[in-house]
Amino acid sequence: MRTARSLKTLAIATLAFVLTACAGLPTSGPVGIEPLAGNTDTDPQITERASGPIAGAGPEAIVAGFIEAAITPADNWAIAKQFLTPELADSWRPGVGVTIDVAGSRAYGSDVESPEEAEAATTADVSVELDQRASVDGDGRYTEASGDTELAFTLTRDEDGEWRIASAPDGIVLDEVSFQQVYNRYALQYFDQGWRHLVPDVRWYPRRSTVATTIAQAVIEGAPSDWLEPAVQSAFPADVLLDGSSVPVSEQVATVALTDEALALDGMTLARMRTQLERSLTAAGVSEVRFTVNGTALDADTAGLAGDDTDVSTVVLTEDGFGSLVGSEVTPIPGISDELARIEQPIAAIDLAQGERLAAVQLATGAVFAVTEGHVNEVLAPPGLVKPSIDPYGYIWSAPASDPQELHAWTEDVTPHDIAGAWPEASAISALRVSTDGVRIAALVTIGGRQSIVTAVILRDDRNMPTGLGPIHEVAELSTPAKGLVWLGTENLGILVPGEEALLTTQVVGGPGSAQSAPPGSVSLAGAKSPAGVRVLGSEGTLFAPRVSAWQEFYEDVLVLGTRAGY
Fold first, then answer.
1. By the 8 A CB rule, do 48 and 71 touch?
2. CA dist list (Å): 169 to 182, 234, 255, 385
3. Residue 134 pairs with which residues in a beta bridge?
4. 321: alpha, beta or left, given left = phi > 0 and alpha = psi -120 to 50?
5. C-alpha angle 251/511/14, rounded to 5°?
6. pLDDT mean across residues, the chain
7. Full-prediction pTM beyond 0.85?
C-alpha cells in the first residue's frame, strides 16, 4: 500500500495584478479609507474613497479625476458627480455598466494643448484611450471584451471659471484591480426544471450597504442570463413584485415586502421563493428571508433540494488498484474497483458517478467503457473521444476531439443519445465537464483558431434525458492551449495547461480568472467543491494539493487521477 507524503512543498507563483503608483496628472486630493457597510465578504472591509476636483485643474485632470472617482460608489457616485455640470450630474447614469481596463493603460488627449490655450478657452474636448479587458452591463453580467477603446468628453467652465464635464458616456471605468475592490461577486440562484437544484447566475454589484435590495430586485423582478434561461426557472410568479424601494437587513434577517398578489400563493411556491432568495442573498450576509404583505408576515417554509452530500474524496488508480484516497490508504469502491482490476489494457481516465455505482473509463487507446458491477460495456463511437464526463442522471458524455458537433450522451447500457446544437462553430474540442447540478456543461473548444472556455445549458425532456444544448456562452479566451478542465464548486472552473511550465487557472463562470503556477510536469487535475480542493497529478505519478502558497506532495505512484461526476 502506498503511503501519504508531506515532506515537500512547491511554491505557488500567482500571476496577479499588481497595483503600482504612477506619475501623472494631478487629479484630486488624497485618497482615504472608508468602511464598507453591510459587506460580509472575507475580503478586507474597506474601499478607497476618492476626493472631489481640485481648484484650477485643467480639462485632462478633471476627466482623470472623474474616472478615478468611480472607486467610491457611495450615494450613487456622488463624488464623481462633482466633476460634472449640474445638468449632466442629473442625467448621467453610472449604473448602466462598467468598462474594465488594464491598470496604467489610460492615455489622455485634449484639443486644449497648452496652459495658455486652457486659460483662454471656454470649452474643451478630451479623449481617453484605454486597453479594455472586460465589461459589466447594467444587470451585473460580466463579459470579456478585449481591445482598444476610446471615450470622449466635452468640458465647459462653470460660473467660477472651473472646468466641469458637460458631456460624458454613461457608466464608469475601473481598472482590473479596482474593479474587484469596488464590486463584489454575487450568485443569483434559479431552479432547474425539476425544482431539484439551484443554479448560480453570477452577477457583479458595487460593495455598498444597499446590495441586499439590489439582489432582491434582480431575483424577484429580473431574469436569468440569456444562456441559462432555456433550462432554469424562478419560483417568483411574474405578477409578484417588491413592495417598496428597499430590503432592510437586521441581524442577518432580510425583510422582503411583496405586493398583494403573494397572498394567493400556495405553501410550496412560497417555500421555493424563500429558498431561492435566501441562497441568492448569502454573499450579502443574509441567513434568513421573511416575507411580508402590507406589514403582515407570510408563513413561508424552505424547500427541499437534492442533497449536496456527494463524496469528493480523491479517487486514484495505483498498482494496488482503484479507490478513494482517505488518509494514507486507497479504499476500494464496491462493485467498481474489482471490475477495473480485470481490465488489462492501460487506463487513461476514470470518472466516477454520484452514488459510485457507475464509472466511465477511457483506455489509453481512446476507447470508452461504462463500468458497473458485473458489466463493462464499450461505448460505440468514432475514435478520438475526449475524456468522458458523467451527469447526475447517469449519462456518459463525450465527443470526438476533431468533431465537437458529434456530442453524445450514453446510458450505462451504452444506448446513445444525439445532442443537438453542440458547439456549431467549433472545429475542435479538448475537454468537457458536466456540472454537479446537471444543468450546465463546460468545454474547451477551438473556434476560428482560438481556444475558448465555453458553457451551455443542457436541454432535457420530462424524464431528464438530454436532447440538446442551449446557446453557447463564451466564458473566456485562452492564450495558451489547455487540456484539463474541471468544476471547482458551482461557480468556478479549473483549467490546466500541462507541461514543465504548467499553469492552473481558476475561472469564474461570469467573471475574471486568475492563474497560478502548477507543479512542473503536471498532466491532469481533479475538481472539488471549492478551488482549495483541486488535485493535480505530476508526470512522475506524484499527487499534489494546494497549501496556502505552495503545492504539497501527499501521495505518490499514482497511475491515474480519477474525477468525480460534477467536478
1. yes
2. 20, 34, 36, 49
3. 100, 144
4. left
5. 100
6. 91
7. yes
